[in-house]
# Entry
Amino acid sequence: MLSKTGSHLTLPSPSQRDRYDPQYDPLVHATPGHGRDYAPTYWVASAGEAPPDDGAVHADIDADVVIVGSGFTGLAAALFLAREHGIRATVLEANQTAWGCTSRNGGQGQNASGRLYRTQWIARWGLETALKLDAEIRQGFETFSALVNEVACDAQPGGHLYIAHRDKKLPFLQTQARVLRDVFGYDTQMLSRDEVRERFVNDADCHGALLEPLGIGVHPVKLAHGYLRMARALGVKVHTASPVTDISTRDGIHYLTTPGGVVRARAVGFATGGYTSNALHPSLKNKIMPVLSNSLVTRPLTPQEREGAGFKSTTFITDTRTLRFYYRLLPGDRVQIGSRSAITGADAPHPRHLDILVAGLHRKFPALTHVDIDYSWWGWVDVSHDMMPRIMQPDARQSVFYALGYGGNGVSFSAHAGRRMAERIAGKPNRAFDLPIYNSALEFPNVLNAVRSPLFAPFRRIGQRGLYRWYALRDEYL
Ligand SMILES: Cc1cc2nc3c(=O)[nH]c(=O)nc-3n(C[C@H](O)[C@H](O)[C@H](O)COP(=O)(O)OP(=O)(O)OC[C@H]3O[C@@H](n4cnc5c(N)ncnc54)[C@H](O)[C@@H]3O)c2cc1C
# Structure
């Protein structure tokens, strides 16, 4: 008998296929599409020709292990399954390789995982666990750095500059710098406003900064192309234009329905990030809060404009706003900057969201007021209930795994998350699995963290709207 572990999803109508849908919303649409175009990002435009993939599924196939989603996480999981465990997975992607956040981010590869600070790890889990978690995340950064070294992806090493956007944020940064140095052993530095201006950038918002030594900026699509090439060279199949619309399980075999055929697999790994539909699989229903993030890239700056903005470094930068801005000078002297966006997909194309980003750029860099914006886009990041990712097998009786929940901080850690998910799928134990990001499942995320019942899921966005207003007030005035 066929035991259903997922419900049937509705495909977009054929007339909608292929075009990028700027209003796509994971809480509204059943799949992210079927062979859709990429978002109009600078990265896609500048990555060069994509390496070949295996095209759409066009018949029923047997696959051993299926990974759903071809972003950094899915490709890394498939790569490490092949490289370290001799398992040649099949990746199923609804649209095109790296179509989700992986082709839309700021390319800031941080020594981090999720959105909590190390001080928050200590407060939440105690010092001993925080130290072990740090060792794991640091190893994750090494996994990422090693892959970056294997791929021509315009890498910009130089760490992470964390700017205090108001004087009152300096004590917070000083505490972080001290804990990072004294407890975790990182060579952090606090810099004055003048030192930041002399060595890095003339950001009018800056009141001082924390410099973290680890951090690599990358061209995310070039990096993803590298993951794809390396994985396929080891026998991984990557089927694009193959949205998984239904999953059922019989006698331990999973049947994944795509428009072109059913894929049978002994194990399934979900790497669907913020593009996870609530109908995809019961283990992921209402477990991720998809949140939009905005990004733009300017035209190349003239030498005078670069001088006016005071860019002396390509180290990537974030600021201390809760609705933070993150930016860097790219190779070729364009500036990429990102921040918050709309609450719903339907509202995402409204120009006021881009206006907020442009106003942030101008406030930081009055010298760039007349610089054209060449690219603007947005994407859905995957926020978990506690702002930390989970790499889990949620039910030991089912060969179903997931790796997601980076909260907009997954460029780097997705490589290691994919590697750890590969270990789990291959049945290899690891002491790291005792850590909270590996030993507890995703829960229903509630932005107010008050009402935990999934019945309240539709109301989460009302809470998010209220929180954004509060954060904006607190960031700028209180
Ligand atoms: C604007 C923006 C800026 C960001 N900046 C940074 C940054 O500077 N640094 C940082 O660390 N992080 C950043 N992030 C977050 C980062 O991009 C992500 O954490 C990372 O790319 C996650 O990769 P992923 O593979 O887990 O998910 P994704 O890249 O989102 O991939 C998920 C894939 O799953 C596919 N999928 C979903 N459902 C199905 C289905 N039913 N069938 C088949 N396929 C399916 C989707 O089509 C998608 O391609 C940013 C994100 C955005 C949107």
About this structure: Residues 62 and 247 are 14 Å apart (CA to CA). Residues 127-150 form the longest helix (24 residues). The chain has two domains: 3-105+220-288+385-445, 160-213+300-371.
